[in-house]
Every structure is written in C-alpha cells, then in structure tokens.
Amino acid sequence: MSKRNFNVMCNNTLTHKFISLSGDIDGIALPQHFTFPYYYTPHPLARLAMDDLQLYLDTQNEWQHDFTVNGKMFGVLVVKNQDGEIGYLASFAAQEADKRPELDHTPDFFVDAIFDKTNHDSLCAQQRTELQHLKSHIHQLKNDPEFIELKEKLSANQQQAEHEITQFQQAMADSKKQRKQQRAETESNTLSPLTPDDLSALISELGNQSSREKRAFKQLKQDWQNTLLTLSTQLKENEYRISQAELTYDNLVQQRHIDTLKTTQFLNSNGVIKSLFDLFKHSDSDQLKQEPIANSSEQNCPKLLQTAFTLGYTPLALGEFWWGASPYDQIRQHKNLYPVCQSKCFEILEHMLEGISTDDSPLEQTPSYGKELEIVYEDDVLVVVNKPAEFLSVSGKYISDSVHARIQVRYPNATGPLIVHRLDMSTSGLLVLTLTAESNKQVQKQFIERTVEKRYTALLEGNIDTDNGTINLPLTGDMEDRPRQMVSHKSGRKAKTHYQLIAQEGKRTKVHLYPHTGRTHQLRVHCAHQAGLNTPIVGDDLYGFKADRLHLHAGYLKFKHPTTNETVEFSCPEDF
C-alpha cells in the first residue's frame, strides 16, 4: 500500500475530517450494532481504518512529535456520511496543548477538541487576569515589610518572654531555697538563739519576700502577655487579610474549573447536549458528586462521536490502538488494540451513546459456561481445584458462576468463607479452598505470612536474555484506568518476583515465576514492563496482545495441612 497523503484529502473545515477508506470494501458487511466500547474485537472496517491510519503514521514526515519517546493512543470511528459514503474519522487522545500546530504541527484531519474554545478562552482570559491580580496581591501582603517586621518582632518577643520568665522562675527557686535554709539555720542556732519576737519577725519577712517575688512574677507574665497579645492581634489582622485573599483565589480557581466543565459539552445522536458538569453533578443540586478524571473529554471515543454527530454522520464501528513508546509507569504495546478507558469515559458515553444499539457486553457473558472444575485433592477440611482459564474465583457483579459458587453447591455443609486466595479470571491453575472456618484461618495465615511456596508457568511473547533473576517493581492501581495496575516507585507497594527460564520456543519463551508478594496482576506487569522482562505473557489482553487465553498457569503449591500440620504439595501441568 502506498503512502496516504491525508493533507490533500483534508483541510481546515470540519466536513473534511471525513477520510475515505482505501481499497475495496464492497464485500464487507456493515455492522448491525455499534461497537461495545469497553471490550471488543474490531469490526473489519475498523481494522481497515486502523491499518490506513497506521500506514500514514509509519510514513508521514510533517508531524514533528517524537513517537519513539512519547507514544499516543489513536482512535478511528467508521462512519456513514450524509451521502451514504463509508469512511472514517481519526483522533488521538491528548491534552489540548498537544493539538496546537505551533507546538508539533499536528495534521488537520484529526478531529478537534470538544470544548468551546472561543468562549472558554474569553472566559479564561478574564479569570486569568483576576487570578494574576489576586496572586500579586497575596504576594504583596505576604512580603509587606511591616508584616515581616511584625512577625519577626513577635517571634523575638516570644523568645525574650520565655527567657525572662524562665530566668525569673529560676531566681524564685533559688530565693526560696535560701529562705528555707536561713529559717532552718536560725531555728537550729542554740549558741545565739533569737527571741521569739525576733524569730517571728524574721519568718514574717521571709514570707513577705516570697509574696513580693510572686507578685513580681505575676506582673512580669502579665506584662509579656499584654505585649504578645498586642503583637499577635496585629499579626492576625494581617494574616486574616492574606487568608481572605487566598480564599478568594481558591474560589476563583474552583469557579474556573466549574466553568471549564460547563463549557465542555457533549452532543448525542438525538441532538441532546450535556456538559461535563451536568454529567457529574448530583441530580438534585449543583454540586459535583464526583470529579471527572482529568482530560476525560480528550479521549478518542468522545471526540470522534462529537464530530460524527455534529456532521450528521452515522457511527458504525470503533477501534483504538497505541502508537510509539510506552510510558514508564503504564504498559502500552506499539500497534496493539485497546478498549475505551471506562474510568474516564463511562458517564460521557452513557450520554453520547443514548439511543444507539451496541454489541452485547462480553463483560456480562459467562466465559466459564460448559467448563468442568477439576478436583485435584479433597478431604474433610481441604479442597484443591485446577481452575480453568477465563473462570472466576468468586462471583462478580454480572457473572455468578465461579469456583466459590460451585464449591458451595458441591459441599453444602461447608462453613467459613471457603476461598483462601484467588487467581485472576484469566489465569488457570491450583486454587485452595477450605471446608471449615478454622481450617480457612490456618491456611490463610500461611498465605498472609508468605510461607506458601508458589510456582507459576508462563509463555512469553518474546525471548529474554537471562536464565534467571529477580524483578523488583512496586505496583499500584491505575486509578484512571481500572483494573490496570501500574509501576510507581513513589506510591507503589513492594512487589518481588523471581523468574527462571525453562525453554525457548521459537520467538517465545517459557518461564517459571515465583512471586514473593501477591500484588494484583503482579506477574503480568513484571513480565510486560520495560524494567521487568520487557515481554508480555501470551494472551494478556491488559498488558500485551489478546489471544485465545492468557498463558499463565499456577502449577505448584506447597504448604502445611491445616489439621495435620504436615507439608502437602500439589502440582498440575499447564496445557500450553
């Protein structure tokens, strides 16, 4: 296929965002329903559109963005225009700054950002001026010489007050000690004793000294208290003016954010417009029930649908892929297909796709239907099963069939939670369950204390350079793209995996994996990440490339039996 000259086909008008599909598409049937965005196999027309766009990306030279350093997520939307022609719209997920031609000469055929830039910029300019004035005012208040001098004076007086009060207290203590000693010496002096009247006068004078010192100490504290109160009152007046200015600044920033949400508006096929604020606010108030994830409106699917609905096009099929280098913290594979980010787009697409028939959700289908659950071992308190791939350990929101559900049916008299640990739905292999609450407690304790020996077998997409080693990459959940996990050396939890090469099978590699911690998706991320083995597990639809199944198998377990305390070992071979 020759290089596509998109700039010849497109100009700055919105209508010319439409890109004709190259090649013969007469033999390809149109989809009956629109793509279910969160888990899908691309329609053949969407694949053609993605191939077309990838050819352009592979051969273009007008875009100065360096994809070998920072990759991007691209999307295509196959549409039927008002003349009945089949073509597609193209997009990339990015912040608005990435769309400015003066930054990287972004080609014009990509669809535009959603928010009303003209009104938004006008509003922002006014608010930006106010914010700058407030920021300058706050800076002046905080750096006012009188304010700084007042803070320094208060601090110095506080130190001086503390010093003088401490010294006076020490002097009072010394004086008290001297008076006590003088009285004792006088009373015990038998050589020249005082008359009772003289002794009484002495004791009275010593008492008067104590009273005078106490009054002087009280006066000292009162004087300092008055001085410090005067200074602190003056300081608080200045600090109050600063806090009020900062509050005004924060409120304006929040209002600017709300205005941005209100000017970011989404159109659906029925012609109904809702803003980002409308989609995330409480139905009975003007308060946000949750904060939209940053740049949600700049995701591909909303932008593509917005352009299609604006032009009166009919959306037919969707496809998204990653192009270029992966970010360090996340895992993205060059040219790999990806679903729409549900965390960012669910509320938006719930509105935009209203009235549009979509494919059935694979997430609500039961992949374990018809699969047998092999019992590897069972006794009065312990059951070990060989869980098939694509089989839930426990029942989910939409799928009730699971290992836990089937064990409940098989052992109706079992007590306790049954489940001791879990395997990902896509992972096959050994899963331990217990039939009594006490045995569950005993076995789970071993998993928590990491005394259970575990070994997994995985088939990797590529080859690795070392026969064995250890991967230490801390993991945390990707709050913007659940259920994916990400590497974070700042906030991630410790995750450690030992690996051992078993065999090279052409361009693929079979390894044993020994997890020392049990983080979510730990083995999958440690294999796929560039600082790990840098090659995903075959069939990993989150961190690698989709296939018939995830080639990850929990093949070996060793732990203490909960009642006999004897060491038990279980193994079952992988079927890949």
Automatic annotation (TrEMBL):
InterPro entries: PsdUridine_synth_cat_dom_sf (IPR020103), PsdUridine_synth_RluA-like_CS (IPR006224), PsdUridine_synth_RsuA/RluA (IPR006145), RluA_PseudoU_synthase (IPR050188). GO terms for molecular function: catalytic activity, acting on RNA; pseudouridine synthase activity; RNA binding. Residues 169-197 are annotated as: Disordered. It comes from the Bacteria. CDD domains: PseudoU_synth_RluA_like. GO terms for biological process: enzyme-directed rRNA pseudouridine synthesis. Transmembrane segments: none annotated. Residues 382-529 form the Pseudouridine synthase RsuA/RluA-like domain. This is RluA family pseudouridine synthase. The lineage of its organism: Bacteria, Pseudomonadati, Pseudomonadota, Gammaproteobacteria, Vibrionales.
